[in-house]
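User: I'm writing a tutorial on reading structure tokens. Could you give me a worked example: one chain, its sequence, then its tokens, then a sentence or two explaining what the tokens reveal?
Assistant: Sure. Here is the example chain.
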Amino acid sequence: MTIEHQDPKETSLVNGASFQDDGSLDSNFDLETPLLKYNISQQPPATGIRSSSIRATLESAQYEAAAIRAEFKTYQSILPAPDQLLQKQHSFHMLRQEILKNHLELPRFLKYKNEGGIKPHHALCCLLLSEYEDGTLNERAKQSESCLVRTLSFGYLNRQLNNPANFIRDQFSCAVDAIPADVVKPGILRKKIRDRGLPIPNYFLDPEDEKQFPPHIALLVILQDGEQELRHLDHFFYRVAFSSFAAIALALRIVLEVIGAAGAIWGGAEVVKLRTATKNVELFRWISLGVGGLSLLRFVILNAPLQEDDGDILGPAGPWSLRLPVRLRAVTEHPFHYFVRATRPSSQSTSKKDK
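And here are its predicted structure tokens:
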């Protein structure tokens, strides 16, 4: 297991101060851990500036973003393909054994503490913060925005992210304001993000949460994307093929669930002789239209993207559904989600509410 549970009775040291947290959600413990001094709406600091103690601490251990990427190339060839890695979510121990079996040096985020290891979520923060500093994170976030979709949906919807690496980056960019400026345990990291009213990235969730995504897998996905192993997801023909499939699936669902419901009332009334050609025609026409309208409302409620949909690993047609049979099933079940997602609350608006 890659994220440790903090013992409620365990005394930890942060910023030189010891504390004891009871682990409850309503705990009044709120150690003022310094936060990063910039947010996603601002220009990132110049490259080379130590934007957080997370990065500084890892660099002091000679483990920075460049070292993580260089280290990745030594074991990249033995890793499962991205779709298998995302679907099976290979455990920390399984990946360790696979690398050791091939007589390769373990990456530090797969080592134990007594081996000089670094926690996967620390390494992931380091990697994503480096992208934020050089502007890559902001650039990708802008590319994922669609003014047309936001305008037509009155700001409620945005274009879907169908590349898992972009999805991981998007979640991080929403929570970057709350990332502590010190290396902290996962429980404290979640608390700081939650206290700011920001969505917790799935790879920072508690391991017991069904939507939790292992941080070591998220880290490997980002590294694989850096080596262009996920580039097929952005190919024009790949996107056209899946978009066409999703559009057909959406049309079929409307025919079956909306038009079919109205037609069932109209045709069924004739079968049981409640409707004839000389009487009750207008009455049953309005009844059929009413049932069709209610069915359309039901269809919208069931299929409208919600903020809670993000990070549901295999559904609703989310970016994790990479293996072809699973992806086709997910798109068939939730075709609308292939195109759009609910707009996330921005950290900037949350900060204004706090004030």
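What the tokens reveal: The longest helix spans residues 236-271. The beta strands are 11-14, 17-20, 157-159, 340-342.
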